[in-house]
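Encode chain A's predicted structure.
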Amino acid sequence: MAEQITLNGELVWLIREHEVVQVLTMERALQAVEAAFRDWAHGRATNQPRQRIHTPQGTLHLMGASWHSKGYLGYKAYLSFPGGTRFHMLLASAASGQPLALIEADALGQIRTGAATGVATRYLARENAARVAIIGTGHQASTQLQAVCAVRAVEQVYAFSRTRERLDAFCQQMSEQLGIPVQPVGCVEEAVQNAEVVITITNAREPFLTGAMLRPGMHINAAGANSLARRELDTYAVGRCDRIVVDDLAQARLEAAELILPIEMRRLSWEQVHSLAHIVGGLLPGRQSPEEITLFKSLGIALEDVAVAVVVYEALQSGKT
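Encoded structure for chain A:
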């Protein structure tokens, strides 16, 4: 059971990583993130884009949101330095401002990023999509794949990573965990050539998914890049997408290099970029035809963190593990 500490004279739950993992299943995360997006579309939640404070040695990242219809607000802060990245989350009451929980938020962030991809896939991928490609097998990859497999009846996964040892270990682990073949392949082209859903979750700085690789009916979850210095899709790939969706339009204008560059080149406009919340909330349609190429540009937003933090806090409070 989570311990309590005193913060500014008030008792606050201190929730550790192992407790987050214990209660935050992907199914719970998917439900919470989808519900939070739906409420946001109807004015019952708010999100503040990420802010970054740079020093010569590293960066402080700050992001906050309110899910006031559920009675919560909070912020996540993390520090990226050469020695590693440290995450924490503060959850508070939206009614009184009383701090409720201080949460170690590394696993929480992995799971919520996967859940956002899962929600987008639910609304944008073809209903019969059964073949998935995942490019990148690092820290965030497993939850991406778990989420997509939770919303579609996936029969085959093709995975690619530049590090063969990591790739083979990932494929073995995920094959056992998901009960489906996760096959290592030798290049990006081979991974995506038969895929109906593509996940990119890398730290690449230069694009590797090109427009020539895309086929009608594909859905792409581009989840790896969230800075102006990084892109996973080239301009032609973005231009081939019939529907482009982001988790937060305001944050996309600051961080989504894959969209900003073609917009500056006048090959795309912000009017063609849509909010996932509006689709989840019924204000815009999802996929409109089997032939559409759809793109979810995931940046990772604070409302997703608040949504899954609520799940963790309420589950530990009620003893539902």
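The chain has a mean pLDDT of 96.
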